[in-house]
Amino acid sequence: AVVSTQSTGDATVMVWNFKPQMRAYRFLGHKDSVLSLKFSPSGHLLASASRDRTIRLWIPSVKGESTVFKAHTNTVRSVDFSADGQSLVSSSDDKTVKLWTVHRQKFQASLIGHVNWVKTAKFSSDGRMVASGSDDKTLKLWDLGSKQCIHTFFEHTGFINAVEFHPSGTSVASANSDSSVKLWDLRMNKLLQHYQSHGSAVNSVSFHPSGNFLLTASSDSTLKIMDLLEGRLCFTLHGHKGPAVAAAFSGNGEYFASGGADEQVMVWKTNFSAEEEDAIKLAPKPSKKQHMHKPIVDSNITNVESGERQVSVLDQPRDCTIPDSEPVNVAPALFSLPSNGTTRMEQETNPDNSIFATTTPLEPQSIPPQLAATLEHMVGQLDVLTQTVSILEQRLTMTENKLKECLDNQQIIALEIKPND
């Protein structure tokens, strides 16, 4: 299935199913624009984040039942599930990152440290860390055991719009408003790769499940695919008529979807060779049918009310199946190619004349076992030192607060005694 927020600000969530004769669902419940969506790993739940300061947890079915999560005091920018589906993490304009339990449906903790809007927050694949990116131009790593920030990357020159952990958990990518994409090594806490291939702000990043390729979406209206093993740009994809605001690979990597400010959602077929991981062969072609059968909206919408929830069910065209080698085209007005039905792919054939600022291949280098063990021990000691410093800072802050409280109390006592004199 593919999910989409309605960019017209009608506060709805749309879910399309690729199976023949399956219906598309429109979920109503949020009071303002929906900014982020995420399926649970099992696919049985759907989380949404909204400008109405809430998160909703939906059961993607005809009933459209949802639970509301309230704790943020400003716009909620992003939401993400942990790999086991037991937890949620959200980021907000209230400058916090919050953790939630899914089954108990309760607020768990706040991660506080950013000094501006937090645009994005994502779980690591092992569920032990969260990465968050903010308009304060920092990327923070949080340890979920201690609920403390264990490292901050200050090297960004623009706002951070999106972050994503590499499937291996050894690095994290950030998409930035300065049109750059950065890849950070979490073992050494240093910049690993830097791509300056877009012409405008980068809004989204997504790793292929193999971990070898990175998909980006930008306000320059393009999608790009980077080869992380070779450290170079592979493909530029044209299709959206305005800023591309989101893009993500499917769980198995066979497809990827993109959404844009042109109110179009496109699904692309990826022909990644299982035998030849070092080559990408994408074949997005214009749809042979520029106009598929339109859904009959007036006679097939069903409204279902349950408490404060309402769901409108919209029939999907009955011949909407997934072609083998072309973008999926479902309900032209809601989920389709641009109006002219064309897309364009450019393969980058001159990597030596690239515009990357810095690139380092991800292919592991041969390191002597003794040196590797020493480095691992040093990294472990640095982690302990970082946590110790964090604890000391926290205690110092508590001491300062106590001292300030004592001074305030002394002033109050002095003012009370003075009139008696």
Please, how many helices? 2
Q: Fraction of residues in helices?
A: 10-25%
End-to-end CA span: 78 Å
Radius of gyration: 24 Å
User: Strand order across the biggest sheet?
Assistant: 1-2-3-29-28
Integer average pLDDT: 77
Molecular shape: globular
According to DSSP, the number of beta strands is 30
**Proportion of beta-strand residues:** 35-45%
Query: Main beta sheet, described?
Result: 5 strands, antiparallel
> Poorly predicted ranges (pLDDT <50, ≥5 residues)?
274-341, 350-365
Which structural class fits the helix and strand makeup?
A: mainly beta
Describe the protein in words:
The chain is mostly beta strands and 421 residues long. It has helices spanning 297-300, 369-420, and strands at 2-5, 12-16, 24-28, 34-39, 46-50, 54-58, 66-70, 76-81, 87-92, 96-101, 106-112, 118-123, 129-134, 139-143, 148-153, 160-165, 171-176, 181-185, 190-195, 202-207, 213-218, 222-227, 232-238, 244-249, 255-260, 265-272, 280-282, 302-306, 309-314, 344-347. The strands form seven sheets. Strands 1-2-3-29-28 form a five-stranded antiparallel sheet, with no helix packed on it. Strand 2 and strand 3 form a beta hairpin.
Brief characterization of the structure:
The chain is built from 2 helices and 30 strands.
Notable traits:
421 residues, mainly beta, 5-stranded antiparallel β-sheet, 2 helices, 30 strands, 13% helix, globular
Question: What is the topological layout?
Answer:
Layout: E1 2-5, E2 12-16, E3 24-28, E4 34-39, E5 46-50, E6 54-58, E7 66-70, E8 76-81, E9 87-92, E10 96-101, E11 106-112, E12 118-123, E13 129-134, E14 139-143, E15 148-153, E16 160-165, E17 171-176, E18 181-185, E19 190-195, E20 202-207, E21 213-218, E22 222-227, E23 232-238, E24 244-249, E25 255-260, E26 265-272, E27 280-282, H1 297-300, E28 302-306, E29 309-314, E30 344-347, H2 369-420
Antiparallel strand pairs: 1-2, 2-3, 3-29, 4-5, 5-6, 6-7, 8-9, 9-10, 10-11, 12-13, 13-14, 14-15, 16-17, 17-18, 18-19, 20-21, 21-22, 22-23, 23-30, 24-25, 25-26, 26-27, 28-29
